[in-house]
Write a structure and sequence with these properties.
Blueprint lengths: L5 E11 L7 E5 L5 E6 L2 E4 L16 E5 L7 E11 L11 E4 H39 L5 H20 L7 H27 L4 H20 L7
Antiparallel strand pairs: 1-6, 2-5, 2-7, 3-4, 3-6
Helix pairs in contact: 1-2, 2-3, 3-4
């Protein structure tokens, strides 16, 4: 539960019977939260962590290309450094080394269904939110459009969390922002159902608002090491 960040280092030897002629790559499907890779002492991906917090890139795969001239016939030393937040723990899924042309399709599919999907949804929600806002400006008496436009704005925050590095805001405040955004999004779904479908969800709306208020208060005062 320590505050700040922690690191873990993995070093191993990769034996190659002969020097490859084509571009090679290291493919990491998933890790937490930032990764720095060296091959035979030469950096091929990322940067060492010195005076900054780790980037939160746990939902984004990595394909680190390795030119053949960095490799040797025989033993090759691979260094992988993970930087992350102890509240959530460091994770490194099984990774792969081989010809880049063989690993690129796997990387592309993984990116598409992780960060790529989140970024697509972010753009879609932004466009829809603006359109609903314009409709509400023209029909001020129909508050449901304002509710829907606001829900799109909070959906954008949720998508940012899964598609981009958010470390610039800080672990505590971004974690609080995106968790509260999910809760507000649920509350606005209740509002939409209550208005459009005709279902009376007032008790659920009251409970939801109470939980949102509790989230904001607890998330603001709990010691940072225990925020997660």
């Amino acid at each position: 539960h320590a505050a700040g960040h922690e690191s873990r280092h993995l070093r191993f030897n990769l034996p190659l019977q002969e020097l490859p002629e084509e571009l090679q790559a290291l493919y990491l499907p998933s890790f937490a939260d930032e990764v720095f890779i060296r091959v035979n002492g030469i950096p091929v991906h990322g940067h060492e962590l010195i005076d900054r917090q780790p980037a939160r890139m746990w939902n984004i795969p990595v394909l680190a290309t390795v030119p053949p001239n960095l490799l040797h016939a025989g033993e090759n030393r691979i260094d992988i450094a993970l930087y992350g937040y102890p509240q959530e723990g460091l994770v490194l899924e099984p990774f792969h080394f081989g010809p880049a042309k063989s690993l690129v399709p796997h990387y592309n599919w993984r990116f598409l269904y992780s960060a790529g999907m989140a970024r697509f949804n972010l753009g879609f929600m932004a466009v829809v939110g603006v359109m609903l806002g314009i409709i509400w400006a023209a029909r001020r008496s129909e508050a449901i459009y304002a509710v829907l436009a606001t829900s799109c704005a909070f959906a954008c925050i949720i998508c940012i969390h899964f598609g981009f590095d958010t470390s610039v805001i800080g672990y505590r405040w971004w974690s609080l922002i995106w968790h509260v955004s999910v809760s507000i999004y649920v509350f606005l779904i209740f509002k939409f159902c209550n208005y459009y479908i005709g279902e009376s969800l007032k008790p659920l709306e009251t409970v939801s608002l109470s939980l949102i208020a509790a989230e904001v208060v607890v998330g603001s005062i709990v010691p940072s090491p225990y925020l997660f």
